[in-house]
Amino acid sequence: MTNSGVVNGQVHVREKASFSGNGTVEFLSIAGQLEVGPETGAPSVTQDFSLAETAELIYGVNADGGSSTINVEGTALLNNATLTVAGVPGEYIEAREHTVIRAGKIEGTFGTVSSNLAFMTATLSPTDTQVNLTYARNDVPLKQAATTENGQELAAHIEALQPVKPAAPAPIDVPTVALAAGARPVIEAPAIKPVEPPKITSTAPKPTGQLQTTQPVAKPNAAINALLGSDMMTAASAIDQLSGYNTADLGNATLSSIAPISSGMLSAMGQKNPGSVHADGQVWVQAIGNSGSIGKQLGSYALKHSTKGVMLGTDWAISPDWRLGIIGGKTQTRLDGQQFDGRLDSWHLGAYALRQDGPWALRLGAVYGNHDGSTKRHVLFNGFRDRLKGRYDANTQQVFGQLGYNLNIGHFDIEPYIDLGYQRYQRDRYSENGGDAALQFNGQTQDYFHSNLGLHLARSFSLDQGMRLTPRLSLGWKHLYGETRGASRQGLAGAGKSYTVEGVELDRDSLLFETGLDLAVSPRHTLGVSYKGETGQDNRNGALMGQWRMMF
Question: Is it the case that residue 46 has pLDDT exceeding 80?
Answer without folding.
Answer: yes
